[in-house]
Amino acid sequence: MYIEFQKHLQKELAQIEADGLYKKERIIESAQGAEIMVKGKKCLNFCANNYLGLADNPQLIEAAKKGMDARGFGMASVRFICGCQDLHKQLEAKIAEFFGTEDTILYAACFDANGGVFEPLLGPEDAIISDALNHASIIDGVRLCKAQRFRYANADMADLEKQLQDAQSCRFRLIVTDGVFSMDGNVCPLDKIYELAQKYNAMVMVDESHSAGVVGRTGRGVTEHYNLRGKVEILTGTLGKAFGGAMGGFTTGRKEIIDMLRQRSRPYLFSNSMAPGLVAAGIRMFEMMSETNDLQDKLHANTAYFIKKMEEAGFDCKPSQSAICAVMLYDAPLSQKFAAKLQEEGIFVTGFYYPVVPKGQARIRVQVSAAHEKEHLDKCISAFVKIGKELGILK
Ligand SMILES: *Cc1c(COP(=O)(O)O)cnc(C)c1O
């Protein structure tokens, strides 16, 4: 059998390569941070989700080591059998405190949180109304659930209203949105979503993966940004981005919802509990968040500085309210050439084009971090300007 299957795979892989969509891994020979080593060369990293620069934070490393010393390396169990330590309950309480919610349930990743949130809560009589640009894990989670599916164009409130009207005959309605959309860096219009949810009797779920730690004056995410703390029924998020960048996911929100997920959510019931070291570091991380706002302030200042300088230089940046800056080039081959030349200059970024973004909307996505110093930002901007001139984008 395998001979035929192998041929089939080889053909498909060759096609992916021919379409220019083959993903290659770039090997990093250092810890994650503003400066990384690639092929023995120092580069500046502008494509990590390491928004607060915590991925190599000494306090988190220390907390993880202490957690491992005190509670061991692994749990070797799911939560409800013998995989729940005092540390897990402490981290869940910290997350609820951070977001102003009632309770929290941990997962191995946010992919699991989203995969396991819909099916236990909603059935065929119900409706899920989802933003067209929501993350793949939300799309997969919705697929696993028997609820009726409605989709609205990205952040399009007229379309959301129409879908809510169409879903009026359903028993329960849940609107689902990413907090920050990762290709444009736009924040979801949660104020208007919340208003429509009130008007059409719906619940709201926000995936805070790209927004938590970043958006809002103190980084409490989109519910802080729109002054809606505690008002949204369900939030999901990751510990794999701003919050240290290791791994772990969570769903936080109304008490009964979290309670039901502990009874029925499959990635929680059938997948291993988070490792003690990561949990201990997570607890320390949320303590740091409540001690000071310095990292958020630095990130917001860095992002504003970067976008201002890029626009002054003549680049076309998408309006962003997050740490994501989409530098628009529109042309797909140009975006790849630009990104490759930036890499030669020691700047790590990613060029995106169709089908990841709409046709004719190719871009370079820059992710700013609190780990960046002004000299890092300036070096990145000068490299953009140099190549922009070389490639005839800037005059
Ligand atoms: C990154 C991301 C996820 C997945 O998070 P993991 O913890 O890495 O699985 C889910 N949703 C959104 C919106 C994301 O950006």
String of helices and strands: HEEHHHEHEHEHEHEHEEHHHHEHEEEH
Rounded to an integer in angstroms, the radius of gyration calculated over CA atoms is 22 Å
Rounded to the nearest angstrom, the distance between the terminal CA atoms is 59 Å
Assembly form of the protein:
single chain
- Considering DSSP H and I runs of 4 or more, what fraction of the residues is helical? 40-55%
Anisotropy-based shape: globular
The largest pleated sheet is described as:
7 strands, mixed
Which ions, cofactors or small ligands are bound in this entry?
pyridoxal-5'-phosphate
How much β-strand is present in the residues?
A: 15-25%
* Alpha-beta classification: alpha/beta
Poorly predicted residue ranges: none
Number of strands: 13
State the helix count: 15
Query: How do the strands line up in the largest sheet?
Result: 3-9-8-7-6-4-5
Mean pLDDT: 97
Describe the structure.
By secondary structure, the chain is of the alpha/beta class. The chain is 42% helix and 16% strand. It contains 15 helices and 13 strands. It has a seven-stranded mixed beta sheet, sandwiched between helices. Strands 1-2-11 form a three-stranded mixed beta sheet. A three-stranded antiparallel beta sheet has the order 10-13-12, with helices on one face. Helix 13 runs parallel beside helix 15. The longest helix has 20 residues, at 294-313. The radius of gyration is 22 Å and the shape is globular. The model has no long low-confidence stretch (mean pLDDT 97). The structure holds pyridoxal-5'-phosphate. The site of pyridoxal-5'-phosphate has 14 residues, from helix 5.
